[in-house]
Amino acid sequence: MRRRRLSTASTSSKRGAGSSSTLRTQKAPNTPHHTRRFTTLISDQEPDTTYLWGYLLFFCTMVGFTVSMYALVASNYMPLTGNKTLDWIKKDSHYCMLVPVTIPVTVLFVLFNWLGMKLFRHN
Questions:
Q1: Quick one: CA torsion of 113, 116, 120, 123, rounded to 10 degrees?
Q2: Where would I find the H helices in the chain?
Q3: Model pTM score
Q4: Alpha-carbon span 110 to 104, nearest angstrom
Q5: pLDDT by residue (tens digit) across 100-110?
């Protein structure tokens, strides 16, 4: 059941001619109520930097993945380097248990995130 906002002629006549309600664009009648109007979020004069944020997120993920894989796998097969940080990672036994514990938690997080999105969209 869709919720509709009540608007009466008396409330719109009380507002001035330059009010924000007259400047808003209406949604198309067939769009679901949970969709957004993306044209009102970013103006045409403002540059779209979404792809830059995507590249930054991808780069940070790759750096984190590389550092984690070194700490989990590669450091066990490397000789002692003389570097305090790298030798500490090699001698540490915490990270070898981190991956088996993280996998089920990640699966549950993804499942509950998906379930929450479905419940939000369909209610």
A1: 150
A2: 9-14, 20-23, 50-69, 75-77, 84-91, 95-121
A3: 0.45
A4: 10
A5: 788 889 999 99
